[in-house]
TrEMBL record:
Alphabetical list of Pfam families matching this protein: APH
Protein name: Aminoglycoside phosphotransferase family protein
InterPro entries named in the record: Aminoglycoside_PTrfase, Kinase-like_dom_sf
Top-level division of the source organism's lineage: Bacteria
Stretches assigned to the Aminoglycoside phosphotransferase domain: 42-207
Length: 248
């Protein structure tokens, strides 16, 4: 990495930090289990992923993937409908792949977390009680029995990179596990609901739109406290709180 002009902080909070040094990303995580999951998941995933350059705990070095993010939460996406469809097709390949050997949270785990986060939002006057109650009722629809598939687990739109109309890389695999396919589709389209039709065109049959919408409410409700406590703003236009308000 000689001749590097600067070190860029990509993201940093109490749990982990990611730095960019030239074309290398350095991920520093306090939880080495997350890093171990990320490395194994990338080796198993049937979609383009970053190349592991080296791993010396607590640092994981990854090569940059080509292309640009499919979009950003809170802003419009410049990607074409075909690129969104390609993202859907990539997610389908992942969901059709053999299961990883570890499990993600169960529906029961999700229900307990939902109750705790909703109580915190109301008790601390973070969000109006009627907004929380409306979305809580919707979110319960996500916590149904599901057939486990290989999920990315944190498939933010900014974690999918495209070059033209093709997926060139999917990053940040530390939450990968066995889980609900509709959760991945919901996280990918969170705040970009108009692109759901494009994603499903690429994904193919078997999607449950009601479950996807329920996961939009769930994901937003359980994310608000974490975002606030780690220095992020879920009230930015187009972000989690706007997603919740749209359900009203």
């Amino acid at each position: 990495m000689t001749g590097v002009d600067e070190v860029k902080v990509v993201i940093a909070h109490r749990e982990c930090a990611t730095l960019r040094v030239g074309d290398t990303f350095l991920k520093i995580d306090a939880d080495q289990q997350r890093t171990a999951v990320e490395v194994e998941a990338m080796a198993l995933a049937p979609v383009p992923t970053p190349r592991v350059l080296w791993h010396r705990p607590p640092v994981l070095a990854l090569a940059a993937v080509p292309g640009a993010p499919l979009g950003r939460l809170g802003g419009p996406s410049a990607a074409s409908p075909a690129a969104w469809a390609a993202a859907g097709a990539a997610v389908r390949r992942l969901h059709d792949a053999p299961l990883p050997p570890w499990h993600g949270p169960s529906a029961e785990d999700g229900a307990a977390r939902l109750e705790a986060e909703c109580a915190w939002l109301v008790d601390n006057d973070v969000l109006p009680a009627d907004l929380v109650a409306r979305n809580h009722g919707i979110a319960l629809g996500a916590l149904r029995p599901w057939r486990p598939v290989f999920v990315h687990g944190d498939l933010h739109v900014s974690h999918v990179f495209v070059t033209g109309d093709e997926v060139s890389g999917v990053i940040d695999w530390s939450e990968a596990a066995q889980g609900d396919a509709m959760f991945d589709l919901a996280v990918l389209t969170l705040g970009h609901e108009r692109h759901l039709v494009d994603v499903l065109a690429g994904y193919g049959t078997g999607a449950d739109v009601d479950a996807i919408r329920a996961w939009w409410s769930y994901r937003s409700l359980v994310a608000v406290r974490w975002l606030i406590e780690h220095g992020f703003d879920p009230a930015r236009p187009g972000c989690e709180i706007d997603v919740l308000r749209a359900r009203m």
